Amino acid sequence: IVLQDPDKFTLQVGLSYIHTSEFGTNYGLLMAGAALAAVPMIIFFFAFQKYFMQGLRIGAVKG
Hints:
mainly alpha; 0% strand; elongated; single chain
C-alpha cells in the first residue's frame, strides 16, 4: 500500500521524514518518536512474556 497523504503515514514512515528538513536533523524529536514507536511492542512483550518463554523452552527440547 502506497500512501500519498502525509496525514495517513504510519509512525515509522513519518519518522523517516523527520530527518529530511532544510535545517538539519532534530535528533531529540527523532529519538522521542522512536521511543514512542517502541512502547506498544514492549507492552505486548511483557503482557505475553510467559508465552514467549514457554515457546522458547518447547523449541529448545532436542529429540
